[in-house]
Amino acid sequence: MVEEARAGEALFRPVRAGNPFEETVERLLQSIKLGVVGPGERLPSERDLAARLNVSRVTLREAIRALTEAGYVESRRGRYGGTFVNTRLPRPKRVGAKKLARELGDGLEDALVLRSALEVGAAEAAASRALGVEERDHLTRCLADTATAKLTDYRRMDSRLHLAIAEVSGSPSLTTAVADVRMRLNALLDAIPLLERNIVHSDEQHQRIVDAILAGDAPGARTSMQEHLAGTAALLRAFLS
């Protein structure tokens, strides 16, 4: 699929030489937790993944084995075989939000400021481009998936939408940075309750952001994303205070 290839450019990038196994596990987990490869879907082929990540197939197999043991993927043999994301993913450990915040320390505010700078810039950049048909379809599909997501899938689909906005900015480096900061905040987001009113409000804000991007309204996309991220940050701080 086109969107998988685009996301793969950012998330399945070459790992650094120092910790190939650990970074391979991290990249694969990012692709699953941020919704790039969803439950029941197949990861790229072993040969393709090893080439993209610039790791040996031995290292890749060890990483896949670790994720299999952790309950994230399964391997299937045969003509239509490969490595598939499990339809039921492991649930995040319920750790108190305040405890996580204490562990993060100043890192929380750092992550929130970084997220705002990156994602506001991504929305503005996306709206400033002449998007192709496939990019527009990708963005509207991710928006629809988020708006219709079950409560148990909402965080993952929300992550996927925000990543899609970064993808259509045209900068793989920006997409990578957005994915990294989202992973830093996911544990905290998972630790606070999903409130129905907040979900409704978020969906409305998502619609305004995407509408502005598709209309080529860069100032509107920037303002809408700022308001959306400010609301999420305020909710986090409220539960952590």
From TrEMBL:
It comes from the Bacteria. Gene3D superfamilies: GntR ligand-binding domain-like, Winged helix-like DNA-binding domain superfamily/Winged helix DNA-binding domain. Residues 18-88 form the HTH gntR-type domain. Keywords: DNA-binding, Transcription, Transcription regulation. Coiled coil: none annotated. InterPro entries: GntR_C (IPR011711), TF_FadR/GntR_C (IPR008920), Tscrpt_reg_HTH_GntR (IPR000524), WH-like_DNA-bd_sf (IPR036388), WH_DNA-bd_sf (IPR036390). Pfam families: FCD, GntR. This is GntR family transcriptional regulator. It comes from Kribbella lupini.
